[in-house]
Amino acid sequence: MVNFGNLLQYLAVQSPQQILSGDQLNTTAMAAYTLPALPYAYDALEPHISAQIMELHHSKHHAAYVANLNNALQSHVVAVTSSDIASQIALQAAIKFNGGGHINHSLFWQNLAPASSEEAKSEAAPSLTAEIQKTWGSFDAFKKAFSTTLLGIQGSGWGWLVKDGSGLRIVTTKDQDPVVGGEIPIFGVDMWEHAYYLQYLNGKAAYVENIWNVINWKTAEERFLGTREDIFKTLSAAL
Ligand SMILES: [Fe+2]
């Protein structure tokens, strides 16, 4: 279950906008979220993820989450300003879905890298891989466990490697729910059909097998060594 307060905290960390309160609350003062540029070209993840998928996924799907989030937040400010609690409650689902979509995809683009790059080698994450080996016994055992979890997701959702107070865990989130609470997302994999269907059709297992070639282990290492605040500060700087 997503904690709505945490989601708003995420959005606040991500956004360069000022904190609005009291008389400052008005729609014209709201800064809009923007679609972050990809840190690589649309064809940079080929042959594992096609340029066509990347372009549609980023410029259409992610862009739609950003636009819908801005619309929902603007309506929410109007509802707050007019003390319309019913509308405020009605807008929460749209803020959660589109805010989560914006957060998840922003994290996802950053935790992918071209297969030929140094970042895509697990050696770029010495501390993280040592902890992975400690937790799952071997790197291959972790990959198998993560892949099995991804393939077990029913419907649309995400698989994540997260860090919490007790160590590393594999978790899933439904639809566009982001990782919340005390967990730090190390890397995530989009398991919505729009992430693979144009290239892999119903071959979901092949998509999962190939995603390992384009995980950005340098980013994963930085997230593992940092705090949740660090992650979203870095993300915010890239937006
Ligand atoms: Fe997606």
What does this structure look like?
This protein is mainly alpha-helical and 239 residues long. It has one domain (1-28, 49-239): Iron/manganese superoxide dismutase, C-terminal domain (minor pseudopilin epsh fold, 3-Layer(bab) Sandwich), CATH 3.55.40. It contains 9 helices and 3 strands, in the order αααααβββαααα. Strands 2-1-3 form a 3-stranded antiparallel β-sheet, sandwiched between helices. A hairpin with a 2-residue loop joins β1 and β2 (167-174). α1 (4-14) crosses α3. The longest helix has 31 residues, at 51-81. It starts with a helix and ends with a helix. Residues 57, 61, 105, 190, 192, 194-195 line the site of fe (ii) ion (FE2).
SSE order and pairing:
Blueprint: H1 4-14, H2 51-81, H3 85-110, H4 126-136, H5 139-151, E1 157-164, E2 167-174, E3 184-190, H6 197-200, H7 204-211, H8 217-225, H9 228-238
Antiparallel strand pairs: 1-2, 1-3
The structure holds fe (ii) ion.
Query: Under the CATH scheme, which class?
Result: Alpha Beta
Radius of gyration: 18 Å
Domain count: 1
Low-confidence stretches: 16-25
> What is the CA-CA span between the terminal residues?
27 Å
**Globular, elongated, flat, extended or rod-shaped: what is the shape?**
globular
The number of distinct β-strands equals 3
Helix content: 40-55%
Fold-level CATH name: minor pseudopilin epsh fold
Strand order of the largest sheet: 2-1-3
In DSSP terms (H or I, runs of 4 or more residues), the helix count works out at 9
Proportion of strand residues? 5-15%
Name of the CATH homologous superfamily: Iron/manganese superoxide dismutase, C-terminal domain
Biggest sheet overview: 3 strands, antiparallel
Order of helical and strand elements: HHHHHEEEHHHH
Helix/sheet category: mainly alpha
Mean pLDDT across all amino acids: 89
